[in-house]
Amino acid sequence: MRDSVYFTFKRRHHPRIKELNLSRTCSLRTLSRRSPSVVIVDYSVLEEKELFSVDDYPENVFILFGDGQKPDQLKKAVKEHGCHDFFTEAALKSDITRIIKRAKKFLKLKQENLSLKRKLRKAESNETDSGCYNWRFFSQKIPGEIRKSFRQKYSLSFIIADIDYFRQINQSYGYECADKVLFEFTHLVKKILPAGSFLIRGREDSFVSVIPGISRKQTRALAEKIQKRINKHIFKYKKVRIHLSLSFGIVNLPYNGIKNSRDVISAMESALIFSKRKGGNAITEYSLMDKEKIAEKETQADIHSLKRKINRLNREVNQNMVDMIYGFAKAVEVRDMSTANHAEGVAVIAKQIAKKLKLPPHQIEDVYYAAMLHDLGKIGVSPDILAKKGKLNRQDWEVIKTHPWIATEILREIHILRGALPAILYHHEHWDGSGYPLGLKGEEIPVIARIVAVSDVYEALTSDRPYRKAFPKAQALRIMRQERGKCFDPHILDLFLKLITKSKE
Question: What domain range includes position 239?
Answer without folding.
Answer: 128-299
